[in-house]
Amino acid sequence: MSDSAANHVDHILTEDRLFPPPKSLAEGAVIGSEAEYQKLYDQAANDPDTFWDAMGKKHLHWFEPFDQVCQWDAPDVAWFVNGKTNASYNCLDAHVLAGNGDRAAIIWEGEPGDTRTLTYSELLTEVCKAANGLRELGIEKGDVVSIYMPMTPELVIAMLACARIGAIHSVIFAGFSAESIADRNNDAQAKLVITANGLYRRGKVLPLKEVVDEALEKSTSVKHCLVLQRIADQETSMIEGRDIWWHDLVDSASADCPAVPLDSETPLFILYTSGSTGKPKGILHTTAGYNLWAKLTFQWVFDHREDDVYWCTADCGWITGHSYVVYGPLTAGATCLMYEGAPNYPAEDRFWELIEKYKVTTLYTAPTAIRAFIKWGDQHVDAHDLSSLRILGTVGEGINPEAWMWYHKKIGAERCPIVDTWWQTETGGIMMSPLPAITATKPGSCTKPLPGVIPAVIDEAGERIEDGFGGMLCIEKPWPGMLRGIWGDQERYVEQYWSKVPGMYLTGDNARRDSDGYYWIMGRIDDVINVSGHRLSTIEVESALVSHPAVCEAAVVGRPHELKGQGISAFVTVTTENPGEELRNELRMHVRKEIGALAQPDDIRFAAVLPKTRSGKIMRRLLRDIAAGRESAGDTSTLEDYTVMAKLREEDDN
Ligand code: 6R9
After folding, report:
1. N or C: which terminus of the chain has fewer CB atoms within 10 Å of its end residue's CB?
2. CB atoms within 10 A of CB 565
3. Looking at this predicted complex, what is its ipTM?
4. Residue of the CA atom closest to atom 18 of ligand 1
5. How much distance in Å is there from the Cα of 574 to the middle of ligand 1?
6. Which DSSP state fits 351?
7. In this structure, which CATH number among 3.30.300.30, 3.30.470.20, 3.40.640.10, 3.30.565.10 belongs to the domain 529-651?
8. Which of 617, 618, 619 to mutate to test the pocket of ligand 1 (most atoms within 8 A of CB)?
9. Rounded Cα distance, 452 and 505, in Å
10. Which residues make up the CATH 3.40.50.12780 domain(s) of the chain?
């Protein structure tokens, strides 16, 4: 264990397993050798203008060329200045004009088993019709459109229709409350809400339109509501003059709608993410830089090949859905599987059934899903042929090494590289990740930065930290996909991302770089636990707990402690029925043995479930309140299941 200075985060978990990339992937790979990666990385770092000039010209269509690559005056940035492009053109027209219109763009499966395939030509037609429909409703360039829809092709069509005419989409997870929708509508001054009359979830119908109706009572700027009839025989109240059926508007609209040439910095979308406290913030991304970053990172990280069937399981209500269901893969001309429903409906093998059925080559999912699969049991996996898989990906949280090993062995049959991709809503696309054909992976590390990403690890005093110690992860130089601001709140933008470490983008995560130059994300800065002056990262203690066979998931938080400053509270879900004092002691000893006495939890609570965001991230902030015995303050609008908190408090009382 390192000597603990107050300025850095201690690193106590040792992980020395190393998995070389499969040799078979090198031939024909997008980035096929270490030398090639190093060349790209060095070019982007040393001569960014030349590098991005070439990348911009090669990978996007320009109605008018840009005359400057990057204008940077931290934190203000503009990429591909004065160029004109269009993200919907890059996603659709470009492929159709290149003769690839018949290639499948989206292979969709609804939860009840209904299916639909859209080729690039068909998707283009649908997007044009929808874009003309939006215009009929008075939507113009610069208007904000909220989208609250199930994972159906129309969700993608709605996003691209906005992009086509320069309207700004704001996708809201279908499942958020009426209040959350109204907040977002009002903050963005949305003019239109696009929704559906329902969605299927675990065999039930959720009446989305009813939620929207309630939201619209408090949404002052919204003029219209466009409603997809997802559920055929669902009674749906429609308010005359305000509400329009998608099929009434779009089906008869003209399919002729040329993409509008848009300035590179035209806002493409706003996406609300929960701040740790206070109201959600609308992260703003603009057209050209974001589009390029999404495409390039998709190609690099998933080593995209023409015959791939790629499946990103994320919902479009999350940034992963924006960048890796829509803009990245479609700009790259990929064939994407899209699935509407739950992973455990009708049974816990739905994902494996889909992979077998569609011969999926690339699977991109989240640690929360992987932990659920482990819990549900290997028999669901064993029943299916997963030999089509080539590459596995993960995103959203750190993946505990034991979950990584399961993914590697059970899903990847020890032959598929795992790309553990670290990035954020704010970064627009993947920032650090293994490259499947060349990077030797270590379970729990997102390995190395992609070309164009210059990370720095900084201590509390603002100094760079030497390798091996944890500190605040910052990004030194601008990159094309970076956020351009928080919608309507420039002050918060500067304060949150640009003031603590001057001139650098502050990610809000802690990280450490090891002696091989690999990065290890250590969790959010706010989550660090200070035990007797030692600053511990949550993920390391959690990974130690998860490495015990009885533990499925673990969340660790600090709580006030008279002697140590902070004590460690652990919340765990386990496979054992009726866990008690014996297991509690065993887990304490296990952590002690794995990473040391200092990290031994002071209290361990067995929970049925942990509070998570809708994208599956454990909400440690809420657990901190429980551990400290306080009421929860701050925003809980992104919490997946409100009853979880009540259950945890009940368990606490017992
Ligand atoms: C894409 C996305 C961002 C935060 C990020 C970090 C955590 C995401 C991770 C990871 C460890 C990874 N995070 N990927 N932590 N390893 N591979 O998740 O965006 O929803 O904005 O969350 O998620 O803490 O700062 P977003």
Report:
1. C
2. 14
3. 1.00
4. 396
5. 24
6. H
7. 3.30.300.30
8. 617
9. 14
10. 23-511
Is 325 annotated as contributing to ligand binding?
no
Residue range 601-628, pLDDT digits in tens = 999 999 999 999 888 899 998 899 999 9
- Residue identifier of the C-alpha nearest atom 11 of ligand 1: 398
Supply 395's token pair. 């995103």
- Residue nearest to ligand 1 atom 22, measured at CA: 424
Q: Which amino acid is at 308?
A: D
CATH number for the domain whose boundaries are 23-511: 3.40.50.12780
398 lines ligand 1 (CB under 6 A): yes
Nearest CA to ligand 1 atom 12: 422
Give the residue, out of 316, 364, 521, 638, with the most ligand 1 atoms within 8 A of its beta carbon, to mutate for a pocket test: 521
- The candidate with the shortest Cα–Cα distance to 271, out of 131, 426, 108, is 426
C-beta neighbour count of 240 within 10 angstroms: 6
Nearest to 26 by CA among 372, 463, 438: 438
For residue 155, pLDDT over 60 is answered with: yes
Is the CB of 276 within 6 Å of ligand 1?
no
Strands lying side by side in the sheet with 104-109:
115-119, 104-109, 335-339, 309-312, 362-365, 391-394, 418-420
Using CA positions, which residue lies closest to atom 23 of ligand 1?
A: 396
SS3 497: helix
DSSP string over 228-258: E--STT------TTTEEEHHHHHTTS-S--P
Per residue in 438-471, pLDDT tens? 999 999 999 999 999 999 999 999 999 999 999 9
The band of 276, judged by pLDDT with boundaries at 50, 70 and 90, is low
- Atom 19 (ligand 1): residue with closest C-alpha? 424
C-beta separation of 303 from 391 below 8 A: yes
pLDDT 10s digits, 570-604: 999 999 889 999 999 999 999 999 999 999 999 99
Report the chain's terminal Cα–Cα distance, integer Å. Answer: 36
Ligand 1 within 6 A of 324 CB? no
Residues in the chain, total:
654
CB of residue 520 inside a 6 A radius of ligand 1: no
Residue 392 CB contacts under 8 Å (≥ 6 apart), including other chains: 362, 363, 364, 407, 408, 411, 412, 416, 417, 418, 419
CA angle, corner 570, sides to 564 and 574, nearest 5?
155
* pLDDT computed for residue 13 by the predictor: 83
DSSP reduced 3-state for 312: strand
Residue 37 sits at φ, ψ, to 5 deg, of: -60, -45
Q: Decide: 537 in ligand 1 pocket, CB within 6 A.
A: no
306 is in an annotated binding site: no
| Average pLDDT, rounded, for the chain | 94
* CA angle, residues 440, 446, 449, in degrees to nearest 5: 90
The b/e string for 296-325 (b: 16+ C-beta within 10 A; e otherwise) is: bbbbbbbbbbeebbbbbbbbbbbbbbbbbb
Is the CB of 132 within 6 Å of ligand 1? Answer: no
Q: What is the DSSP letter of 266?
A: S
Residue range(s) in the chain whose domain bears CATH number 3.30.300.30: 529-651
Q: What is the pLDDT of residue 208?
A: 96
Which helix (H) or strand (E) element contains residue 214?
helix 208-216
